[in-house]
Specification:
The protein has 278 residues and is mainly α. The chain has 11 helices and no strands. It has 2 domains: 49 residues, no CATH class; 192 residues, MetI-like fold, CATH 1.10.3720. Helix 4 crosses helix 5.
Length: 278
């Protein structure tokens, strides 16, 4: 990792560190009820208790001076919940993007397909996936299927609309040059249109995976009995605000990791693109 990259990471950490310090100071001064807004230290302890199995947590607590509240409720559920949420996100995203890509490419490349399908998708697109929750439960029951259905809906439209835009906004100069060189229809699509649309498609996928993460939390609060969303809802019922925040932070960290991975994938696939040669 280059020195410039380390500098960028250090600069990016300044605001979060300052925010946490202010949060800890406000909580330490007793200006807010700890049941409403626990301190970062409380959240950290809860996060560790949420992460580690009981025997590991006992060792960790003894190594850190012992003590603490019995309400920490050590469970080691975090890894199971995170894996459950990631599974639903990945499967739902693959289903949604897998459907959106061929449809978007067809609509972008064919005026006939666009004329037939665009009114339907423009009607459905403003409807939030959350509105489908009652139908998803009626159609698929409880468990993973309705959650995956909702996530696929959330990922479908960002990928679809960006794919259509990418295909339809290919520079006409490229198309005319390819025709002048005798490119056939399939060659034109595979060698000119599709590569030119890739930046739009990858942007749509990056947005779609973010939307999928939003939808999975909502769907887990309704249709399943594990996952980060379910655990946050459970913590709300018992007024465990520190566990709620610990779950929220876990969601943020997972989302950050996935977005960073998508960004690296984008840079790799678009290394030929102007501005990314370095």
């Amino acid at each position: 990792m280059t020195k410039r990259r380390w500098q960028d990471i250090a600069i990016g950490l300044v605001v979060p560190v300052v925010a946490i310090a202010i949060w800890q100071w406000v909580a330490g001064m007793g200006w807010v009820n700890e049941n409403i807004l626990p301190s970062p230290l409380q959240v950290w302890r809860k996060w560790v208790a949420y992460l580690l199995p009981l025997q590991d947590f006992t060792t960790w607590r003894e190594a850190n001076g012992g003590g603490g509240k019995l309400a920490w409720l050590v469970s080691g559920e975090l890894i199971t919940d995170a894996l459950g949420s990631l599974y639903r996100v990945i499967v739902g995203f693959l289903v949604g993007a897998g459907l959106a890509l061929p449809i978007g490419l067809s609509m972008g490349a064919s005026r006939v397909a666009y004329a037939w399908l665009n009114p339907l998708f423009q009607l459905l697109r403003p409807i939030p996936p959350i509105a489908y929750i009652p139908l998803s439960i009626l159609w698929f029951g409880l468990g993973n299927p309705p959650a995956i259905f909702l996530i696929a809906l959330g990922a479908f439209f960002p990928v679809l609309m960006n794919t259509i835009a990418g295909v339809r906004q290919v520079d006409g100069i490229y198309l005319r040059a390819a025709r002048n060189l005798g490119a056939s229809g399939p060659t034109m699509f595979l060698r000119v249109i599709l590569p030119a649309a890739v930046p739009y498609i990858l942007t749509g996928m990056r947005i779609g995976i973010g939307t999928a993460f939003i939808v999975v939390i909502v769907s887990e609060m309704i249709a399943v009995n594990n996952g980060l969303g379910f655990r946050i809802l459970e913590a709300r019922e018992y007024f465990w605000s520190d566990k709620i925040i610990a779950g929220m932070i876990t969601i943020g960290l997972l989302g950050l990791a996935i977005d960073a991975g998508m960004n690296k994938l984008n840079n790799y696939l678009l290394r030929w693109h102007r501005g990314l040669e370095h």
